[in-house]
């Protein structure tokens, strides 16, 4: 809300409201507000996929996986799967690529009590994650790579 808020989004009709009655913009982001009033964007509606009838949050999976000490950076995306609707694909930058062990990661997650729905179906070890011009992880590129299982494309 403020003087710099647009009156409409490109390609929408003027009858589609951009703001709520109080003047706040509709973004559909999922946020938390801390005690000091600061917002933290924790997920976006596109960050949820359906796997075998279960709604899976990419952010929740990332949080579980990032808690493992062998993982430096992780991004999870849902990719098409003929049996489940979607499968989870984790792109992991390990702290030590030479010693990283996917089986140990899975065992660690299970031992920590992580639900089987939050243990990735596919893991790709990468040296870095693609980013958008704004510096965020480019999930669109990861979904494309994950859907084709093309993990050698420079991602």
Q: Can you characterise this structure?
A:
There is one protein chain. Helices cover 19% and strands 27% of the residues. The protein has 155 residues and is an alpha+beta fold. The chain has a 3-stranded mixed β-sheet with strand order 5-6-7. A two-stranded antiparallel ribbon has the order 1-2. A hairpin with a 5-residue loop joins strand 1 (30-33) and strand 2 (39-43). The longest helix has 10 residues, at 102-111. It is elongated and about 55 Å long.
Mean of the pLDDT scores? Answer: 83
Distance between the termini: 37 Å
Overall shape: elongated
Helix count, per DSSP? 3
- Structural class per helix/strand content? alpha+beta
Outline the low-pLDDT stretches.
150-155
Total beta strands: 7
Give me the Rg, rounded. Answer: 18 Å
Oligomerization: single chain
Q: What composes the largest sheet?
A: 3 strands, mixed
Helix content: 10-25%
* Strand coverage percent: 25-35%
Following the backbone from N to C, one meets helices and strands in this order, namely EEEEHEEHEH
- Write out the strand line-up for the largest beta sheet, numbering strands in chain order: 5-6-7
């Amino acid at each position: 809300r403020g003087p710099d808020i647009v009156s409409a989004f490109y390609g929408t009709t003027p009858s589609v409201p951009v703001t709520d009655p109080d003047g706040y913009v509709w973004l559909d982001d999922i946020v938390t507000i801390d005690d000091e009033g600061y917002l933290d964007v924790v997920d976006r509606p596109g960050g949820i996929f359906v796997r075998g009838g279960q709604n899976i949050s990419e952010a929740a999976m990332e949080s579980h996986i990032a808690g493992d000490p062998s993982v430096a950076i992780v991004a999870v995306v849902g990719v098409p799967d003929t049996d489940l609707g979607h499968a989870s694909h984790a792109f992991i930058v390990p702290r030590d690529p030479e010693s990283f062990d996917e089986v140990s990661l899975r065992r660690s997650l299970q031992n920590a009590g992580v639900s089987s729905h939050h243990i990735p179906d596919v893991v790709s070890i990468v040296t870095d994650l693609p980013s958008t011009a704004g510096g965020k992880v480019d999930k669109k590129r990861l979904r494309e790579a994950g859907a084709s299982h093309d993990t050698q494309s420079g991602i």
